[in-house]
Amino acid sequence: MSGYFALAVSVGLLAVIDTWLFGVPLADFLPGLVWVSFIAWGCFFHSGAGTKGLIPAIVGMAFGAAVGVAAIWALMVPLAGLGQFAGPVAVGLGAFAICLASKVPVLATIPASVYGFAAVAGATFLMAGSAEMDPVGAYIPTVVAVIIGALFGIVSEKFAGLMTKA
């Protein structure tokens, strides 16, 4: 089987499992966060796959999520007085921090950090209107979903490799 087709089969089958995992057994702990897993899975391949892609996908996205938590907190507290500019300024400061941090080799893949920032923001705002809306509370579920997605990336790569050798 060609590598191209093997990867398509591998990703397709594992996407079923990933979606089921988030929709059934993990639904209470990671409600609606399958999309974060898929972003991390894509980030794994975008970052070079293998161990080379696993580290920036997990570390970069977790870092970006931490920056996102800080930005959301800043928007709700110290920047709140800026009115309609609070959100844009918070995002701008977060983007600034992510770019500066890319000087550190493990954080050099800026898109990975941006994906993590966006993921924690999405997870936080999914909880909007509930007593649970809390960027700090969204961090751990987001990072767990990132780890699961990145691991699905490596499993899909290995599974595709097995199918091409058969």
TrEMBL record:
The chain crosses the membrane at residues 5-23, 29-47, 54-76, 82-100, 112-130, 136-155. Coiled coil: none annotated. Keywords: Membrane, Transmembrane, Transmembrane helix. It holds the Pfam family DUF1097. InterPro entries: DUF1097. This is DUF1097 domain-containing protein. It comes from Aurantiacibacter flavus. The lineage of its organism: Bacteria, Pseudomonadati, Pseudomonadota, Alphaproteobacteria, Sphingomonadales.
